Amino acid sequence: MANLRSEASNHGIRYLLTQYWQENGNPRTTGLPLIREGPWCTFFVIGIYLLFVTKIGPSMMRKRQPYTLRLPMLIYNSSMVVINFYFMFKSLFWLDYGRELANFKYPLWNSERYETEEAREEVWSFYLYWLTKFVDLFDTIFFVLRKKDRQISMLHLYHHSIVPILGWYYIWYVFAVPAVNLFAFLNSTVHVIMYSYYALAGLGPHIQPYLWWKKYITQIQLIQFLLLGIYGVFVYHFSVGYPPFAFWLASSQPPIFFALFANFYIQSYRKAAKKVE
User: Fold this and answer.
1) From the CB of residue 3, how many other CB atoms can be counted at a distance below 10 Å?
2) Separation in Å, CA 216 to CA 85, 197, 219
3) pTM of the full structure
4) Could you say which residues form the signal peptide (predicted)?
5) Distance CA 52, CA 131 (A)
6) How far apart are the C-alpha atoms of 227 and 13, rounded to whole Å?
7) Per-residue pLDDT averaged across 230-244, rounded?
8) pLDDT for 8-34, tens place per residue?
9) Any residues with CB less than 8 A from the CB of 263 and at least 6 apart, and which?
10) Which helix (H) or strand (E) holds 224?
11) How large is the average pLDDT for residues 73-98?
12) What percent of the chain is modeled with pLDDT above 70?
């Protein structure tokens, strides 16, 4: 009897680890690498990332001089400008150039709309966009190697950790929701501006006088989450067929991000300005 219970328990664990995610997700996306295995690979990568940037990396660098990394960072930031510029335009296509924002009906998995070649291409292109969220993690690693630990804030870690996790859930279960595609558009636009700033800053001190617009990046980020929050109100009032858990999970993020970015802005610019006065 004990052996039967143990076998049943093991079967249940194996089912939860693999088969459950393939049977209950969107059939158009559950075959993708890192999606079909469940969220575990994403959790593992984020866990290793957090462990490195908060413990292993700072400990490793404690007795070392900071690395300059000017060329690698210039290549990285310039590449991210190009990548995000590409996905900024791709997300406009996913939104049908804004028309999809007026569609408040939850997309059905068996809809003929998602049987087209364009729909299959959208799956792959958004999947590639999601993979870039892991590439974003390298900017924290650069902070660690350059001993810029003060820039690794709670906001920074939360942002880089939660976006890949929510992206996995979106691809696995609620693919083609306009609100998330709106996030992709706004997020890519902000990242074009942000990585452009970092790329220019990497050119050396002579370019610093022209980088007076740094604080406006945070203001644009605040506007981004304000717009997402406003759109979430419309989704709440007009949506049809949205799973409650998926809706509340997504709608909780704009207020959280807005509060974190607002606190960062106040700490970095408002209080700093008062000290100068």
Assistant:
1) 7
2) 19, 11, 5
3) 0.92
4) none
5) 20
6) 41
7) 94
8) 455 678 787 878 998 888 888 888 999
9) 155
10) helix 214-238
11) 97
12) 92
Structure token pair of residue 141: 């690693």
Using CA atoms, how far residue 50 sits from 42, 57, 138, 140, 257, in Å, is 12, 10, 12, 10, 19
Q: What is the pLDDT of residues 114-167, one digit of tens each?
A: 778 888 899 999 999 999 999 999 999 999 999 998 889 999 999 999 999 999
CB distance 59 to 51 below 8 Å: no
What is the DSSP-derived secondary structure letter of residue 106? Answer: P
CA-CA distance, 256 to 23, in Å (whole number)?
32
What is d(CA 107, CA 104) in angstroms, rounded to the nearest whole number? 9
Cα–Cα dist 184/122, whole Å:
13
Tell me the CB-side half-sphere exposure of residue 88, using CA atoms within 13 A: 14
Tell me if residue 159 is catalytic: yes
Q: How confident is the model at residue 234 (pLDDT cuts 50, 70, 90)?
A: very high
CA–CA dist 269, 276 (Å, integer): 10
**Position 40, amino acid:** W
Give yes or no for a contact between 39 and 173, defined as CB atoms under 8 angstroms apart.
Answer: no
**Catalytic residue selected from 156, 159, 160, 206:** 159
Distance CA 269, CA 207 (A): 21
Q: In sequence order, which residues have a C-beta less than 8 Å from that of residue 70 and are 6 or more positions away? A: 202, 204
Asked whether residue 214 carries a pLDDT value surpassing 80, the answer given is yes
Amino acid letter for position 201: A
In the prediction, which pLDDT does 60 show?
96
CA–centroid distance for 160 within its chain: 6
